[in-house]
Amino acid sequence: MGGFTHLNAVSGFSTRFGAAHPEQLVQRAAERGMTALALTDRDAVTGAVRFAQAALEHGVRPIFGINLAVAPLAPAPAQRRRTPVRGGAHVDEPPHRIVLLAQSAAGWARLCRLTSAAHAHGDGPPLLTWDDLHQHAGEGLTVLLGPAAEPVRALAAGRPDLAEHLLAPWQQLPGIQLCLESCWLGHAGTGPGSLRLAARTLTLADQLRIPAVLTNAVRYADADQHRLADVLDAARLLRPIDRRHLDSGERWLKGPAAMGDTARRIAAAAGHGDDRAARLLADTAATAEACTVDPVEDLGLGRPHFPEPAVVGAPGGPAHAARLLREKAEAGLIRRGLDRDPHARQRLEEELEVIRTLQYDSYFLTVAQVVEDVRELGIRVAARGSGAGSMVNHTLGIATANPLDFNLLMERFLSVRRASLPDIDIDVESARRLEVYDRIIERFGTERVAVTGMPETYRARHALRFPVKFSVLKRTAAIRCMSSTPCISSVATTAARAATTAVAAPIAQNRPAAPGDPAGAATPGIRPDHVFLDAELRCWPSPASPADSSATADSPHEMTS
């Protein structure tokens, strides 16, 4: 059979849920003969860039999406809270979730607006309201309603009448393409992931003339990574691993042949033949084909995006911005008493030429304006990092130190030989950083300003410590496993991956790890260096000590910038 496209797949950027890097998902898709793949991380699109870069490298067409929680239409029955028998804590997750796919650049914009709206409702988990959907959903979006969606949950409860009633508001949303998601994950019964529910979903789709698509609700790239998914579930829910509720092991990036078999099983369970299975696969392929967002043309991947020159005082365009930057830099040179220093003038001229060649003039003007505004607020501000080695930054007042006095190289910060963008790190007073945010937004407008976050990551030992906290592994076995893993070593990555798999396997079987236990396949997300890693390695709070300061003892110190 031909290729298959997974329309529902998450990576480690789904906090404590996804168990594979975006790059690994794309690589496996290419190896298994798939020409397209969707990334639908939970609550965020932070993995989209790495996903798109990997897709371009491997020749896989990227489909951009997101998995968001939605407020229920029907009131949920009140449930009495019970204390967890084996310890842990109550973590309330929104019960109903949907998948959104962007069909076009306009659809991507709508998807991003909906994501922002979901995060704007208080301090709880991100949650879409129906007001958000009516305001931002529309043409260019595909909506997948799967086992976690409210209508399909009603179907699982044996209420097809209620499911049909709950589908009506989705059908009335203008402009969207609505699909029902048929998904079999090997579970028994009639609940989410069961064959019966997958078949009932297909039947309901046929009755209501709604397209049905086949997905596998992918959480990991390879079948043997399901143990890591169990560890992530325990960390997310703040409770020990429960052998009664382990991952089924089916939510991996299956190839076209396996998904074809799944389609035939679902069709047979619904009372149909291979022709219905073929139509299910065809509808899935058509839905994938409708999503045509190009990461380069539509999203601008690989191109620098700076504020327009007019925003920083140069309405005449890029050439005007270059002249304005030179005027400000030369004025700063005089102000700092360096105008008669031939070395300083030569250094400034060389840097301005590099900036003009790369057309980064408006970027430097923007940062200079931000620093000036911060100082006007009476807030202490200073540049750090490689940006302090620039004479232009020194003359614009961004950096305090004269780079010539300390033999600082500008090439470490910016060079025509480097493809990466410059990065000027600015430190401000932590207690007043919100004032800085407000001033920047006031100056440049909400359409040009975004607040970003940098998650901290673990080195090998601390990456092992937190899965142990949520396991039934004996303390002696845990200490032996962690002490055998070096903190900083060229082999730390391999050792950490092998040790984590060795820990996770006995956890699932409720027995301690023995020295001779096989390590199994390498698991992603554990490295000894402070590289930006997947979300499964972000801080995992412990029920016993939620503010354990030792958890990030070897993580990079936090700076406000």
From TrEMBL:
Keywords carried by this UniProt record: Cytoplasm, DNA damage, DNA repair
Domain Polymerase/histidinol phosphatase N-terminal as annotated: residue spans: 5-72
Biased composition (Low complexity): 542-554
Keyword Cytoplasm: yes
Domain of life: Bacteria
Signal peptide: none
Region described as Disordered: spans on this chain: 542-561
Name of this chain's protein: Polymerase/histidinol phosphatase N-terminal domain-containing protein
Species: Streptomyces longisporus
